[in-house]
Hints:
Layout (H helix, E strand, L loop, with lengths): L5 E2 L21 E2 L6 H11 L2 H9 L6 H17 L5 H16 L8 H18 L5 H17 L6 E2 L3 E2 L2 H13 L6 H15 L11 H12 L7 H9 L7 H4 L5 H23 L3 H4 L1 H11 L2
Antiparallel strand pairs: 1-2, 3-4
Amino acid sequence: MIRIGMLAAAAMLALPAAHAAEPAPGCMVARPATGDPKAYAATFFPKASLADLDALAACLGDPDPAVRDDFAFTVWSEGLRGRQLSDAQMRQALAILTKMAAGPDDAGGFRRPFAALALSEVARADRIEPFLTEAELHGLAASGAAYLRGVTDYRGFVPGEGWRHGVAHGADLLMQLALNPRLSRADADLLLGAITVQVAPAASPYYHHGESGRLARPVLFLAKRADIDDAAWAAWFKAFHPDADTRWKEAYSSDAGLAAVHNLTAFANALYVTAAETQDPQVKRLAPLAVELLKAIP
C-alpha cells in the first residue's frame, strides 16, 4: 500500500538528488525515486528525529493517494512491522497518531482515517512484542473506540482520490486490540460498544466497500475471550434487533430503511459464516445469535 521518505526541508536530512523525488504538496518528506518501502524504512527510522516522525505522520493526510497510501502509510507499516522504531519513537508515533485521529480533519477527509490505520500498526507492534504499559494500552483502546464511534464520513474508495474508509480503518485498529491477550474486559466492552454504533448507523450509506466484514472481525476475535459469557453475548446481539424507529417500521419504503437492512444483514452474515464454520467453540456460540438477528431483520 505505500512508500516513504526523509525530510526535505533545509533544516532536516535530505537524500541525495539521485535517490530522492521532490516532496509532494502537503508532504514535507522526500520520497525515494526508486526502491522498496521496506528497505527505505530500514534506513529512515534509525536516523529519524521526532520532527521527522511528525513530518511523516503529516503525509498521511496528503490528498495524493500515491503519497498518503503508497508512501506514508506503507513506510509506517514496514517500519513498525520490522521493529525499526526505538521505544521512544514508538511512543512518539502513538502520541502523534492518537492526536491526529482525535483531532479535526483536513479538508479532504484523509488525515483521521489514515492516522487510525497507522495506529492499527502500532497496536499490532505491541501485540507482537509488548512495549505499552497497561495504562497506555487502555488509553489506546479508549482512543480507538472513540475514533470509530465518531466516524461520520462514510466515503470509501473515490476514483481519482483513493481511499478514506474511516469505518474500516477504525475496525482494523479494534481488531489488533481485540487480538491482544493483555486487553482487559473493560477495554473489550469499549470496543464492542463502538462497533455497535457503526454497524447500521442512521446516517450511513449502503456499505459496499467491505465495511461490514471489517467490523465483524474484531467481534470474532473478542468471542475467543472466556470472560465474555453467553448472557453478555446474547445481550449484545439483542441491541441490534430492530426497534420502533421509523427506518425499521418502514424499512422498505425509505432509503434509510433499505440501507439499515442492507448493512445489518451484511454484518450478521459475516459473523454467521465464520462462526458456523469454525472449530473454536467460543466463536461458534455466536452463530445461533447471528441467525436470530437475521430472522429479526424486516
